[in-house]
Amino acid sequence: MSALSGDQPTIRFRELVVPHLEDALVFARWLTGNRDDAEDVVQEACLRAFASLGEGAILRPRAWLLAIVRNTAFTWMAKNRRKGLLVLGDQNELDRLAETGEGDFSDPPALTPEAELIRKADAAAVQKAVGALPAPLREVLVLREFNDLSYREIADLLSVPIGTVMSRLSRARLLLAASIAEDHRG
């Protein structure tokens, strides 16, 4: 085997992790709140992923990597941030408040410079509203809407029942819609 081809763990890393690095960075960015911290988290998560490649079959590499990113982000934030900045909220309260609802977040067509400017303003409002969600709701919303994971994959990743995923997602969508509506009224 040549030095360029790499060994088996390196090959597995390229196959299982590298294709999902952008998703990992997006997820870490939402969890940490900024790109620099997200890059640190993803780097640490990649080291953890590489170290665990020999531990058996990985059936859903994307969900597996995002679970590592999530755990790494929480560990990293607990170690590197003041405790007041790590706000998780009361999960039982969040679950109890969950309601049913769907939001339509389709992008408007950007045919003119004016339409493109409106789209950018709307995207900034959505980003601000998502960032303001409590962490358990934000992570479910990001995993579903931005990372396109299934309810089952999210439930497995977070180690919660699928009903909890559905209720958190519903609550996140309602809060997101209310926040965006409030911004447009004000």
Question: What's the topology here?
Answer:
Layout lengths: L7 H9 L4 H12 L2 H17 L9 H20 L10 H7 L15 H20 L2 H12 L4 H8 L3 H24 L1
Helix pairs in contact: 2-3, 2-4, 2-7, 3-4, 4-8, 6-9, 7-9, 8-9
Describe this structure in words.
This protein has 2 domains: 8-84, RNA polymerase sigma factor, region 2, helix turn helix motif (Rna Polymerase Sigma Factor, Chain: A), CATH 1.10.1740; 87-185, Orthogonal Bundle (Arc Repressor Mutant, subunit A). The chain has helices at residues 8-16, 21-32, 35-51, 61-80, 91-97, 113-132, 135-146, 151-158, 162-185. Helix 4 (61-80) crosses helix 8 (151-158). It is an all-alpha fold and 186 residues long. The protein is globular. Residues 83-111 have low confidence and may be disordered.
Keywords:
186 residues; mainly alpha; Rna Polymerase Sigma Factor, Chain: A; Arc Repressor Mutant, subunit A; 2 domains; 9 helices; 69% helix
Gist?
Helices cover 69% and strands 0% of the residues. The protein is mostly helical and 186 residues long.
The number of E-state strands comes to 0
Rg for CA atoms: 18 Å
Q: Termini separation (Å)?
A: 64 Å
Tertiary shape: globular
Mean pLDDT: 77
Under CATH, the topology of the largest domain can be stated as Arc Repressor Mutant, subunit A
Helical coverage, percent range: 55-70%
* Secondary-structure class: mainly alpha
| CATH class designation of the largest domain | Mainly Alpha
Report the sheet with the most strands, covering strand number, pairing sense and barrel closure.
none
* β-sheet strand percentage: under 5%
CATH arch. level architecture of the largest domain: Orthogonal Bundle
**Low-confidence stretches at least 5 residues in length (pLDDT < 50)?**
83-111
Give me the number of helical elements. 9
Number of separate domains = 2
Give me the strand/helix succession. Answer: HHHHHHHHH
Q: Any idea what the CATH superfamily of the largest domain is called? A: Winged helix-like DNA-binding domain superfamily/Winged helix DNA-binding domain
